Amino acid sequence: MLRIDRDAKKFTRLQRPEMSKVGLTERYDLQHMIKNSPDAFFQEMGESLLLIGDEVRPTDFVEDRIDLLAVDQQGPLVVVELKRGSNKLQLLQALSYASMISKWEHSEIIAQRQQFAGLSEDDVEEEIEQFLLQDIANLNDSQRIILVAEDFDYEVLVTAEWLSEIYDVDIRCFRLALSAEGKTEFLTCTCIYPPPEITKHATKRGRKGTTTPAKWADWDDALKAITNKAIVEFYRKELDAGRENHLKKRILFYRFDGHRRFFMAARSKNVYVWQNQRFPDDQIYWNKKIGEHIEIKPVKDGRCLRFYLSKAKDFEQFINAINGDLQKVEFAEESFESDDENEQVN
């Protein structure tokens, strides 16, 4: 980094100390600094991420911890691994973490952010809904890896390139550089792989087709984990009727004129319903049709709705609306839903 001297019309090169020599550690210094100011750090990287935890245990089967875990605005979970110097095992470690969190359900992500930020479940739900550019069904459909270090071994960079280009694994490597002038220190974070120009302008090949394995072998297996019998009975009836579905996230879809206007994702005790695009007085309609207990709320700057169903009567009234009243309503113009349905849920 150069300091500009306008009067003398010259540059002065700042000191470039190694972090180890000035006592900066990845866990007790860098990680805490990022945790305390994530927006500033992610903006320096050119990334739009929501930090949901630090020292995150990816599964009960291992004791290792993810340095930082975040959510991308497109829905992927992002593993961020920090190293002060360089380490050949950094990428292998991050890959194993990404594979473990690929199995996380929506509720685990919400719980992690709750614990980290000290917010209520409803507040976290709303926060993530507003943060995502896609609907919440895309949450954790894919994973990303960000490696941050002072330097990278050749083996790490060439492996990252191979995994990215051949297998379409989203890996980015950022180089940290410390500069100092007297007691004032500066940190820069520069993307060295892939090159910034490629990262900015290129479209990832095959991203729409990238999937992670389903947690359940079939729908019978998926429904075993649901404790609410009303949900199980409703899902079985809809599946038997041939309802469009997505096993990996226990989702049912409802289309109008070719567009996915509703999806519902089953949880243990209730289902999460997303209405894609609005129709006149829809909040009033749903509160009268089903009841105020569904906790209906506008999301995506008011362009969509979300609510919860849990009782047999809730599901009955929802289906009555789908097959009856809603066949006659006009939804708002398409400004949020993608033309490509595969972008909604892989």
The domain tally reads 2
Order of helices and strands: EEHHEEEHHHEHEEHHHEEEEHEEH
Number of strands: 14
Side by side, the strands of the main sheet go 3-4-5-6-7-8
Q: From the coordinates shown, what is the CATH architecture of the largest domain?
A: 3-Layer(aba) Sandwich
What structural class results from the helix and strand content?
alpha+beta
Cα(first) to Cα(last) distance is 43 Å
Helix content: 25-40%
Strand content: 25-35%
Low-confidence stretches: 200-211, 335-346
For the sheet with most strands, the description reads: 6 strands, mixed
Radius of gyration, taken over Cα atoms and rounded to an integer in Å: 23 Å
Based on Cα principal axes, name the global outline. elongated
Q: What is the CATH topology assignment of the largest domain?
A: Trna Endonuclease, Chain: A, domain 1
Q: What is the residue-mean pLDDT, rounded to a whole number?
A: 87
Structural overview:
The protein has helices spanning 26-36, 38-45, 90-101, 106-117, 121-131, 154-167, 196-201, 219-224, 229-240, 282-289, 312-323; strands at residues 2-5, 10-13, 49-56, 66-72, 77-83, 143-149, 170-181, 184-193, 245-246, 251-256, 259-266, 271-276, 297-299, 304-309. With 346 residues, the protein is an alpha+beta fold. The chain has two domains: 2-104 and 140-209, 3-Layer(aba) Sandwich (Trna Endonuclease, Chain: A, domain 1); 219-343, Aspartate Aminotransferase, domain 1, CATH 3.90.1150. Helix 1 packs across helix 2. The longest helix is centred in the middle third of the chain and has 14 residues, at 154-167.
